Amino acid sequence: MVPALVGAALLLGATVTGIGFANTPAQAVAIVIGAGVGLALLDVTGRTLLQRVVDDTVLTRMFGAIEALWMAGVGIGAAVGAAMIGPLGLETTLAFFGAVLPVFAVLTIRGLRRVDRAAIMPERQLSLLGRMAMFAPLPRIDLERVARQLDLIEVHAGDAVVQQGEVGDRFYVIDRGTFDVSVDGRKLVELQEGDHFGEIALLEDVPRTATVRAHTDGAVWALDQEEFLATITGLPQAATAAHAVSAERRRAGVATHDGRQDPKG
Questions:
Q1: pLDDT-derived band at 119, boundaries 50, 70, 90
Q2: How many other CB atoms sit within 10 Å of the CB of residue 185?
Q3: How many Cβ atoms are within 10 Å of 103's Cβ, its own excluded?
Q4: What is the mean pLDDT of the chain?
Q5: Closest by alpha carbon to 112, among 17, 12, 14, 7?
Q6: How many CB atoms lie within 10 A of CB 114?
């Protein structure tokens, strides 16, 4: 994210400086449009990087602090700018303020790179979630947030990940291995890498409708009920897809659909 972040700062700084030297209305409009592009890119890249490195438990407070600093900066800048225009002139004042952000970005680039390197992308989790109909509609940043919430659980052959009749509190995605799905002790289907299970109990607030047991050694990614429901119900397209999967599995009587176009149905 750092090249885009620094590039946005340079663009915004250059356009703020350039406004003071515009000779025609057309030039001024073009420069203002450029400033808008730079500001939007700076805002998006900065917030994206922030969400990748800050824990969700303090993210809201962090955004609140940023908004407060933004408003304070606007107020201070307006006061200082008004005081500078008289003795220095408009062009010099705009050039000064246009240089502040690029200089600050260049001075902090080493620290920004360290932060950027620390923001490791959960590529495996993103790949698995992106294949599912219920998660595919999510914006990229929301998908990244969910991917970071997944916990990897190693399982051994014979382990029951969920038991029929118990209370459900997690949603599962298979990372590797094969898993048997059974109802009332009768095996109905086998799940494998990329398949998911556990959403019916969470969406419908009912006990587990089947037992899922590891047929081989493997691993599953687990997502807590609160995070799963907040994510799925927060976007109508995702909620519709999730309930469609749940209804299909209810009709079939077994969790066999993995949220993709799969011949298993």
A1: low
A2: 7
A3: 12
A4: 84
A5: 7
A6: 10
- CA torsion, ordered 119, 123, 129, 131, to nearest 10 deg: 140
Alpha carbon distance 255, 246 (integer Å)? 8
Give the Å distances, CA to CA, from 43 to 8, 39, 72, 149: 9, 6, 17, 24
Residues with Cβ < 8 Å from 244, sequence gap 6 or more?
133
The pair of structure tokens assigned to 244 is 């469609």
Q: Which of 206, 190, 188, 186 has its CA nearest to residue 198?
A: 206
User: Cβ distance 200 to 137 under 8 Å?
Assistant: no
Each residue's pLDDT tens digit, 178-202: 999 998 888 888 999 999 999 999 9
3-state secondary structure the chain: CHHHHHHHHHHHHHHHHHHCCCCCHHHHHHHHHHHHHHHHHHHHHHHHHHHHHCCHHHHHHHHHHHHHHHHHHHHHHHHHHHHHHHHHCHHHHHHHHHHHHHHHHHHCHHHHHHHHHHCCCCHHHHHHHHCCCCCCCCCHHHHHHHHHHCEEEEECCCCEEECCCCCCCEEEEEEECCEEEEECCEEEEEECCCCEECHHHHHHCCCCCCEEEECCCEEEEEEEHHHHHHHHHCCHHHHHHHHHHHHHHHHHCCCCCCCCCCCCC
pTM for the whole thing? 0.60
- Residue 185, φ and ψ in degrees, nearest 5: 80, 0
